[in-house]
Amino acid sequence: MKEKDIRELANHPAAFVVFILGEDSNYLVIPAKYLAAELPNHNEGRTEDGFYHFNIVLGQQGFKQLPNWSLHQYRNKFEFITSALNAPCDEKSVATGLLLN
Length: 101
What we know:
Elements: H1 3-10, E1 15-23, E2 26-31, H2 32-38, H3 79-86, E3 96-100
Parallel strand pairs: 1-3
Antiparallel strand pairs: 1-2
């Protein structure tokens, strides 16, 4: 993902990034604003073409590039999206997401 895309998503109160972890029953639902807040801690930085990479380390609760960020609170949390969709909102806060696998 490019930083610009992450930051743009993070400006929407109900935006999420969904990471599929090998199969559709194992996924992360991360509010985009939290992902954007972690970018300064990304230990590899951006690639030459400006992308951030996020790789899960099997058997651990985090990304290789963000080893101190525990992701267990985001695992299989589809209710984050449904609660955002059910919350009162204006036209600027409609739930937005990006699916990665």
